[in-house]
Specification:
By secondary structure, this protein is an alpha/beta fold. It is built from 7 helices and 5 strands. It has a single domain, classed as Rossmann fold, CATH 3.40.50.
Length: about 190
Amino acid sequence: MPEPDRNTRIYDTAGELQKQTHSSDKGFWVVITGKGGVGKTTITAILSHLFARNGLNTLAVDEDPQMNLPYAIGIPTSDEIISITRNLNYIEEKTGARPGVGWGLMMSLNPDVSDVVERFGMKGPGGVNILVMGTVIQAATGCLCPENTLLDAVVRYINLREGEVILLDTQAGVEHFGRALARGFNQ
């Protein structure tokens, strides 16, 4: 019997993941992590479409500063992506720290994020919802700590119900584990 092609294996894996986690009364989270260039964004985009096609309310979160997930999901490159990092006033309002200004600032680790998905989320093809953290806007602006704090709070804030899934496309490496951004993700 010939070995199934890559797309068939990915589809089967998505189906198994859904069966394993969808039996509860809550939705589920999936974090896609690994080294750079291994296909995290591609896998996240494929899973997002598969889950949405199967009737799940799907939110794909692009935590990778390369910001390729919207395009992999099918957002035209001509569309403007509204990333969190481009809204410095909003980040400062929510976290108390303005990115790129000063060092050693105090920052709120539990900001109010009830409006983040509504303000910065995008609707992609096939019913996939997308939230993009963004990237470093210019050199010497410091780390993405306030932005990551905001994104972490968003992930913790969303109370998933049955039929809902969040997929997190991470940057290369393990920084998201150090920041505990991946806490609460099932797989």
